[in-house]
Design a protein that fits this description.
about 5% strand; two-stranded antiparallel ribbon; elongated; 2 strands; about 50% helix; mainly alpha
Length: about 240
């Protein structure tokens, strides 16, 4: 008896359909009667659709099944398809190579766009007012990006130094104005709740106030001998 091992079998073109579907498609090639071959091909399409019943309502689902049928037959099947029969050239076209910038980024924590913006600001055609206003906003952005990358805010001296280096000292910077900037990123971290120490103090004061209130709500009860009980706190 000759054993059928997987390494001896034909390679599956679409493994998600399994070997049985591939064998059914292979059997279609042996049918000589075209009319019978068309009927069997539609039956195979129905079986392929039953494997993924949830996808039947999607657009072009039947079209994909017919394309997969031709792919599994290695484009050798000759049947009457309701859709244009795909060719090997259409499905094996390699995509065009996308151009990728290989430029080196000097300061990765700022990003390449910061460096490109500073280089454009160094152009002599830009007015000093536009440069000053843009550098002020750019410095705030650089502080934000540096915090995201390093988890700490750089000093204003570091920001001024980096701007000068990236512009090759071509930008005149108002260092006094930049020294007074405040990072808007820091202002987002306002705590709506007090810190742990203050929260504990506030909780202790509330408990003491509740205790005093409960003591003022004491009630007097008369016992059987005509006496009264004092200091009973309602809890």
């Amino acid at each position: 008896m000759q054993k059928n091992y997987n390494y001896k079998r034909q390679k599956l073109f679409l493994p998600e359909y399994g070997r049985h579907i591939h064998e059914m498609v292979e059997s279609l090639l042996a049918i000589e009667d075209r009319r019978e071959r068309n009927r069997q091909a539609r039956a195979v399409i129905a079986v392929m659709g039953n494997l993924n019943p949830l996808l039947r309502d999607t657009a072009d689902f039947t079209h994909k099944l017919w394309d997969h049928l031709f792919i599994m037959s290695d484009f050798r099947l000759d049947v009457d398809s309701p859709y244009p029969q795909p060719t090997r050239q259409e499905l094996t076209v390699s995509p065009a190579r996308m151009p990728y910038s290989s430029g080196r980024i000097s300061y990765k924590h700022y990003g390449k766009y910061v460096e490109q913006t500073i280089r454009r600001l160094a152009d002599e055609r830009n007015s000093q007012a536009v440069v000053s206003r843009t550098v002020d906003q750019l410095a705030r952005y650089m502080r934000t990006k540096s915090y995201e990358y390093n988890q700490e805010h750089p000093s204003n001296e570091v920001i001024i130094r980096d701007i000068k280096r990236m512009s090759d000292n071509a930008i005149r910077i108002d260092e006094v104005a930049l020294t007074n900037i405040r990072s808007e990123y820091k202002q987002q971290f306002h705590f709506s709740h007090p810190p742990k120490g203050q929260k504990g103090q506030k909780g202790g004061a509330q408990r003491a106030q509740q205790k005093n209130r409960s003591q003022h709500q004491s009630r007097n009860f008369v016992n059987k001998n005509g006496g009264t009980w004092h200091g009973y706190s309602k809890q």
